[in-house]
């Protein structure tokens, strides 16, 4: 196997730039979706669930987003290894994962898209079914969309890769690997 490209987004992209893009995208997504939903349901009275519950939901969103990356891999029988890591600057902990064997490009794209699709669909469905709590569901949708910016950066790298490549996920990034010609 030959390594076609090693991808480490922390080294390739400015972390501050990616964070600003994620926060900005989350903010714009919330504004846009809230305007749409509030214009569809103008008579809806918004209900509260309390600040504590909202903070608990927001704090559990990042681990849930990370776990949902592994669901498509688990479905095809690939084991994943998890590590909670803090970088040198003592920022918030980061959840990193790797998997045991190489995965096809399309399966890895599915794994990268799964949190955005699953949580996005669930939160939009919740906003539609319970319009009184739509603002909470749209907060979840927008925060999840902001976290997906990093996933889309990985997907952008994979779209440029050859069709029949495989991906080896390491704790610090991924390697795009091609089979050696025989």
Q: What can you see in these coordinates?
A:
The structure is a single chain. The chain is an alpha+beta fold and 182 residues long. The chain has one domain (2-41, 49-178). The chain contains 5 helices and 6 strands. A 4-stranded antiparallel sheet has the order 1-6-5-4. It is elongated, with a radius of gyration of 18 Å. The chain crosses the membrane at residues 20-37, 67-85, 106-130, 136-155. This is Putative membrane protein YhaJ. Keywords: Membrane, Transmembrane, Transmembrane helix. It holds the Pfam family DUF3267.
List keywords for this structure.
single chain, about 180 residues, alpha+beta, 4-stranded antiparallel beta sheet, two-stranded antiparallel ribbon, 5 helices, 6 strands, elongated
Summarize the structure.
With 182 residues, the chain is α+β, with helices and mostly antiparallel strands.
The total of beta strands comes to 6
State which percent range the strand residues make up. Answer: 15-25%
Poorly predicted regions: none
Count of the separate structural domains: 1
SSE pattern: EHHHEEEHHEE
Instruction: State the secondary-structure class.
Output: alpha+beta
Query: First CA to last CA: what distance?
Result: 11 Å
Mean pLDDT: 87
Shape: elongated
Helix content class = 55-70%
How are the strands of the largest sheet arranged? Answer: 1-6-5-4
Question: Radius of gyration over alpha carbons?
Answer: 18 Å
Number of helices: 5
* Main beta sheet: 4 strands, antiparallel
């Amino acid at each position: 196997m030959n390594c076609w490209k090693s991808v480490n987004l922390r080294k390739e992209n400015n972390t501050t730039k990616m964070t600003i893009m994620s926060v900005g995208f989350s903010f714009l997504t919330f504004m846009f979706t809230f305007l749409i939903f509030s214009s569809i349901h103008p008579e809806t009275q918004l209900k509260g669930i309390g600040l504590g519950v909202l903070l608990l939901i927001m704090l559990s969103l990042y681990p849930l987003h990370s776990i949902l990356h592994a669901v498509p891999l688990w479905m095809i029988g690939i084991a994943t290894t998890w590590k909670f890591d803090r970088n040198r600057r003592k920022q918030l902990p980061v959840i990193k994962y790797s998997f045991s064997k190489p995965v096809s490009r399309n399966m890895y794209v599915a794994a990268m898209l799964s949190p955005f699709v699953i949580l996005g669909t669930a939160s939009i469905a919740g906003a539609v079914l319970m319009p009184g709590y739509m603002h909470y569901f749209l907060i979840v949708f927008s925060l999840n969309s902001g976290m997906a910016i990093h996933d889309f950066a990985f997907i952008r790298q994979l779209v440029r890769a050859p069709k029949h490549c495989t991906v080896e996920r390491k704790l610090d990034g991924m390697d795009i690997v091609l089979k050696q010609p025989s």
